Amino acid sequence: MPIFEGEIQVRKIRKRGGAGGIIFSSITLEPTPRRFVIKASYKVTRSPKLFKEFHIWKVKGEISQQVIEWKDGTKHTEQVIIPETLDFVKAAHENLKKLLSESPSFKGISEIKAEKLISFFGDELISIALNGNIERLLPIVGENVAKRLIIGLQEYEELATLQLLDKLGVPPRIGDSILKIWGIDAYQQITKNPYFLTAFEADLNLIDAFALDRLKRKPTDPDRLAAYAKSILFNAFKGGNTCINTSKWRYQLKRLLGNAEQTEKAIQHSIAQGEVVILNDMVQVKSMNIIESGIVDFTNQLINRTYPKPTQQKSQYYIKKYESIAGFPLTYEQKNAVKLCLAHGLTILTGGAGCGKTTVLEAICFTLENLKLTSQIILMALAGKAAQRITETTGRDAMTIAGFLHNVNVDNLPDDVVIIIDEASMVDVLSLYQVLRKLPKKGRLILTGDQEQLPPVGIGLTLHTLVNLSIPHSHLSENKRQSESSGIPLISTEMRLWSEQSSSIAFSNYKDKGIGVSFIDSNKTDLQTNVLKTYQELGGDGSDNEVLILSPVRHANGGTQNLNALIHDNFIRGKRLTFEHEEFGWVNHSLLGRAVRTGELVLYKRNDYQRDLRNGSIGKVIDKDEFSDGIIVNFSGNIVTLTSSDLNDLEHAYAMTVHKAQGSQFTRVIVVVREGRNLDRHLLYTAVTRAIEQVVFIGDKADFYNALSRSNSLKRLTLLKYLFKSKTD
């Protein structure tokens, strides 16, 4: 068979192997180009992620032929190369293209125009700009744009880093983060130790390709071995763990490196360099140890600090005054909770959903302010929807933790500020640590939430751990939110206290729209059909969230994506919204392949303070914007125009994951029950307590009861409890 050896350009990726290997079409760079399909095994391609369209590679391998048949019966013969070697040559200037098409400094250069500039000039484009050779650019762009291009690149401080990123083939999604965080130091960081890139990309095969193949580092490089040692600990973060057992760490590292000697060197180097910390037969990366130790230090300071205490008489006076204004008396539990928060620097307030925590928060704020114990109270939550809910229920402004961290200057906080974090079960260790770092020395922190609700999406356990430590803690048990007649308080309490000795739950019979908690048995085949049928029977028509579907998963059968598509296809009949694309003409705005229509319910997935939108904000699509490529959405009275690119931050809002719904409440809730690693007592309990009047579970009852016996959040491995006890004993 003939052998080809030369440079090829990737044209279309056909398939990436899960454990390595790749298939793609390509074209040679010869005067008379030839087309080949490259079929590379996992032995040749460590990381399929490396391969991008228009990248150039050098290939050597035998040429063979294969006949493929299209769906219409047409047959086609392809030239195939199975490479002996496949070496990276250069990338396609993707980071440069992203800079030119997205940075305000290069206004007037669209993505298509940036592509044309790079295709035409290639490696010369940057030198043309640095030399100010405007005449070379004029055949492609106008004079004003050419001037902006030249000035922009000449003034861009991170240009050397940008060139390095493109030389290595670092994808723009990673390159963008590197430039934002490291800035002008990025070039030095990457060349000094390319394994620092694991802070932005967890795939060590990909980092190895940058370091070993392109920067010519050795496999025995201590920085590489330490990176592998830490990668196991970083990988534990995916399960919410802040640490792992040392024996498990050693075992997994040996499997990764495949060599006992290198494993020991990796462990010794990572410990000697202070990259990892071993405590209580557990190991964690140094940065996580700093975070958990910091939380312990800050909480101990708050617990041990002396605060001015009002007299019992004054406290009673203002509590009674609050009751008079509110128009109802506080319970004994609620009064004690208020008094506890007045007396301490750190207080935890817990209770089941609807037990009156919001009322206590209002009373705490009222009493603290009237007793002159604080100059400012800041209410916040992790999720945007939860923060919005606080504002709605208390009448006080609330913000997300991210908004507080990014927008509030610590120098502007009064010494006696009180920070209240609601839905604290959702708060991960990093978020809590960052808030504590900003808290002034005389400030107070109040954490409110329910430790039986879901653990954080992020890393670690905060509220779930802190409630079991020696920290001032008040628990509310009387339910105030759901009507007792609905049965939700009784059922949720049974679920909250479920144990192996529990027998079964007395569900009410399902009779369409009504009150109570019901269960509809369904096999997996009919699951989505039954959800759709029940949604309609409960009055759901896609026009509002009076009926909401909750699922433990996003993908697969019974996941939010499928269910949102199902509701969209069956109920949404508004007009399709289109916009004119400069290359493809008139096209539909779309979400998950579905045309966006007027009347759509959509959920915004990030915090956007300029538009007054939060992660979890729900809106309704009104119309397209006549003056742009955008759509107009009404987010509870906040009318916002979203561009076509903003649609990446939207999803349909007929079905949500339980995590997304946390912090909100809805009249009727349908809960999908399907076996999976996410399904446990905390998820089901959180789901049932989202409803005010009616809950309908749909799925397999065996899966339901099995889940009630599981507590995935309590299985997370952390050192917070150990560190707290070791520093207080």
TrEMBL record:
CDD domains: DEXSc_RecD-like, SF1_C_RecD. PANTHER family: DNA HELICASE B, DNA2/NAM7 HELICASE FAMILY MEMBER. This is AAA family ATPase. GO terms for molecular function: ATP binding; DNA helicase activity. The keyword Nucleotide-binding applies. Keywords: ATP-binding, Nucleotide-binding. It comes from Colwellia demingiae. InterPro entries: AAA+_ATPase, Coronavir_polyprotein_1ab, P-loop_NTPase, RecD2-like_HHH, UvrD-like_helicase_C. Residues 343-473 form the AAA+ ATPase domain. It comes from the Bacteria.
